[in-house]
């Protein structure tokens, strides 16, 4: 197994473990009631009313957890996930011109940017609580939807790269 393959397997495992831990934290500590899910879990976004209802239902302890431990892991996970996706695209699509391989790696990188932008706005909303502005909420919701869209397209690109590379050798 090459070094790049070992590195990608390592980041894939760390990414999956980080995601599993974040999912557990969200389910166990950040879901205060029926239908009240953390912002990251709302793939299709959320309205100002939904966001305010969620912010009102969060306990001070849950808010503190969201702003500390969850935020730390939600900074680590996207970087590991995007590195893994971009790395697979780069190594498995070796038959393509380098500029094409580089261009398709922009999607996983864009995913990280959107996730970090979303995290920054969610942190502002958590600090402001139910008094968060409609503009803050709408922008955070847009970032959430865009982030998930970029993640989905990136995963599709990885599947394409895996199929494209089937039967070929790589470093």
Can you give a write-up of this model?
The chain is mainly α. Helix content is 77%, strand content 0%. It has 6 helices and no strands. It has helices at 3-29, 48-57, 60-92, 98-104, 106-128, 134-164. Helix 3 packs antiparallel against helix 5 (106-128), helix 3 runs parallel beside helix 6 (134-164) and helix 5 (106-128) runs antiparallel to helix 6. The chain is elongated and about 50 Å long. It starts with a helix and ends in a 7-residue tail after the last helix. The relative contact order is 0.15. The model has no long low-confidence stretch (mean pLDDT 91).
Which key terms come to mind for this protein?
single chain, 171 residues, mainly alpha, 6 helices, 0% strand
Mean pLDDT: 91
Helix count equals 6
Major sheet description: none
Beta content = under 5%
Would you summarize the structure shown here?
By secondary structure, the protein is mainly alpha-helical. 77% of the residues lie in helices and 0% in strands.
Layout of secondary structure:
Elements: H1 3-29, H2 48-57, H3 60-92, H4 98-104, H5 106-128, H6 134-164
